[in-house]
Amino acid sequence: DAGVIQSPRHEVTEMGQEVTLRCKPISGHDYLFWYRQTMMRGLELLIYFNNNVPIDDSGMPEDRFSAKMPNASFSNLKIQPSEPRDSAVYFCASSLRDLYGYTFGSGTRLTVV
Amino acid sequence: GQSLEQPSEVTAVEGAIVQINCTYQTSGFYGLSWYQQHDGGAPTFLSYNALDGLEETGRFSSFLSRSDSYGYLLLQELQMKDSASYFCAVERNTPLVFGKGTRLSVIA
Hints:
The complex is a heterodimer of chains A (113) and B (108).
Chain A: E1 5-7, E2 10-13, E3 19-24, E4 31-38, E5 42-50, E6 53-56, E7 65-71, E8 74-79, E9 88-96, E10 99-104, E11 108-112
Parallel strand pairs in A: 2-11
Antiparallel strand pairs in A: 1-3, 3-8, 4-5, 4-9, 5-6, 7-8, 9-10, 9-11
Chain B: E1 3-5, E2 9-13, E3 18-25, E4 31-37, E5 44-49, E6 53-57, E7 60-65, E8 70-75, E9 84-91, E10 97-98, E11 102-107
Parallel strand pairs in B: 2-11
Antiparallel strand pairs in B: 1-3, 3-8, 4-5, 4-9, 6-7, 7-8, 9-10, 9-11
C-alpha cells in the first residue's frame, strides 16, 4: 500500500485566494482525519470522517474552512479566502476502527503571504 | 476537556537511555499512544498502551499507569537518528488528542 497520499506537498498562495488540499486515505480505512500543526498550537484536529460522513467539525477554525469526503478514496480541505494565519502544515491521517494507530500523510505545508 | 503534559525538550547522549514522561487529564480514557516525528516529516505510530504496565518493541518501551494518569516512553541505546519530536496522544474513542510534543536531541 502506498500509504496516505496528500497533495500538494507545498503551497504558497496570496491572502484572499482559495486553497484546496487533497488526501487519499489507505484503502479499507474507515476513518479519515484532518489535523493542522503549528509551533504554537501543536497538532490540532480540524475535522474527521467515518465512512465518508463528517462526524465532528468543531475544530474547524472558521467558516472559511470546509472539508468534504465524496467517496472512500478521497477527501479535500478548502480554505476560502485564505489568510496569513492559516499558514501551517496540514496533515491527513486514516485509521481502521479495530486497529490502533493512525497513518499520517506527508502533509501539505501551506504558506499564505 | 482533555489535556496532556510532556516536557518540551530533552537532550541525551548517544548510547544512553532516555525517558519521556506524559501526564494526562481526560474523561473516557481508552489508552495512550506515542508517535515520532522527524523534522519535516509526518508523525509515525510507535506504540499503544491500553493496560497498565510496560510494552516493549525493540529499543523502545512504553509504560502506562491508569491510576496515576501517567505514561512514559523509554528509548534505549540511543542513536543519532532518534533525534526527533515525540508525542503522546490520548485515545478516547475517536479521535486522538495529541500533546505538544517533546523534542529529543541526541548528542555524541
